[in-house]
Amino acid sequence: MSRVPPASPRLAPEGELRCNTNWPIQSAKPQRLSTLPPRGLRRPDAAAYVGVSATKFDEWVARGVMPSPKRLDGVVIWDRQNLDAAFERLPDSNVVPEADIWDQVRA
Asked: Does pTM surpass 0.70?
């Protein structure tokens, strides 16, 4: 039994696609891409947004360092603005270290 090669594609009128059988397929209307960042973030995106792994993010949520998510109809999302506020409350790394105990000893 011989195999029939697929039909060669032909150019279709603009806005129309053709599959191997050359039957016209209507293309979907172009979607307007949003340039607005999402307000709600799923767990992996929320963790990436604050720059940590999902596991570390879960730890911070459990400790109250990061906010709890919003839940509705089985959807769990974090509010980006709440993440920003929690991130602002994180301590800076240039905290002055505690003085060495030996600095207080007089010679």
From this structure: no
